[in-house]
Amino acid sequence: MTHYDETSGDEKTIIACNVCSKLHYCEKSFKDTVKCVRCGSRIYKRKKDSAQKTWAFLIAALIFYIPANIYPIMTFSAFGKTRGDTIISGVNAFIKSGLWPLAFIVFTASIFVPLAKIFGLMFILCSIKFKWDLFYKERTKLYFIVEFIGKWSMLDVFLISLLTSIVSLGNIASVTPGPGITYFAFVVILTLFAAMSFDPRLIWDNNNKNER
Question: Residue 199 phi/psi, 5° resolution?
Answer without folding.
Answer: -105, 105
